[in-house]
Specification:
alpha+beta, Arc Repressor Mutant, subunit A, Chorismate lyase, 2 domains, four-stranded mixed β-sheet, GntR-family protein transcriptional regulator, transcription
């Protein structure tokens, strides 16, 4: 590198450091970015700091977020467009929809999830509800046999709609061996116990993959979102202690109502 280029890079680095120090020495008194205000509000709703049913008072939020009224109103309108809050000129702005936060190592619907700051089992009738959409024995397609590493000719297919406080949240589609009496075992939040009662063997682990996909017309009608809306598709393989795949699951989550949380301490 030439001496001139080294000198230029040194001056540029010094200019950048001085600029950053200047910003820190004289910070802006207000958070004027509506996007950043939106992110902070959505985080407060997702984590339960602002639970469903809370009235959002503009004067209080302006102070709490150190922002301007214009930036706050734009952020609130973005949340209203998503259906997270409802704005009424007479009654004010209220949080109308709960958001579900799911730990990444507990992606299946029977695991414990966090809903607006409250820990609850998915089967709690106070928060969650489950509607059976379809359940029948079907021929195992070549791909299902390959994915589940089985030679069985038939599998039991079951599909359910899960709602959170009366609002559709996700569609759950699963495939198990045709001889499994799936309906006799009701989820209670303990994955290992459910697995043992359902399949008669001990649970080992699960493999999950999550991706964003466009919502198909049928699923969009179930989740009450426009066709083509981004949804989170989670595919799960459930293994027993002998390494056999006991269940293949697909879970279609509303992208505007779901967040996934990773606790790196649990992954060490």
């Amino acid at each position: 590198m030439s001496a001139a280029l080294q000198t230029w890079r040194g001056r540029d680095r010094l200019h950048t450091v001085n600029a950053v120090q200047g910003l820190r020495a004289a910070p802006s008194p207000l958070q004027t970015s509506s996007r950043r205000v939106y992110e902070l509000l959505r985080s407060a709703i997702r984590t339960g700091y602002l639970p469903a049913g809370t009235q959002l008072v503009e004067f209080e939020l302006v102070q709490a977020l150190s922002t301007s009224r214009n930036a706050l109103r734009v952020a609130l309108q973005l949340l209203a467009d998503e259906g997270v809050v409802e704005r009424n000129p007479r009654s004010g702005t209220f949080i109308t929809s709960a958001m579900v936060q799911i730990t990444l190592n507990e992606l299946d619907p029977e695991a414990r999830v966090q809903t607006s700051g409250l820990i609850a089992d998915l089967t709690s009738t106070e928060v969650f509800d489950e509607q059976l959409l379809d359940e029948r024995v079907i021929p195992a397609s070549p791909y299902i046999r390959r994915r589940m590493q089985t030679q069985e000719e038939y599998v039991l297919m079951h599909e359910r709609l899960i709602t959170v406080r009366g609002e559709p949240h996700h569609v759950w589609l699963g495939y198990v061996s045709a001889d499994v009496d799936y309906a006799t075992v009701r989820p209670n939040g303990e994955r290992e116990l459910i697995f043992r009662e359902r399949f008669g063997v001990e649970y080992s682990h699960a493999e999950d993959s999550v991706e964003a996909v466009p919502c198909d017309p049928r699923t969009s009608s179930l989740l009450h979102v426009p066709p083509g809306s981004p949804i989170l598709l989670c595919e799960t393989l459930m293994f027993d202690i002998d390494g056999r795949i006991r269940e293949l699951r697909f879970r279609y989550n509303r992208g505007d109502r779901t967040s996934y949380k990773v606790d790196h301490r649990e992954m060490r």
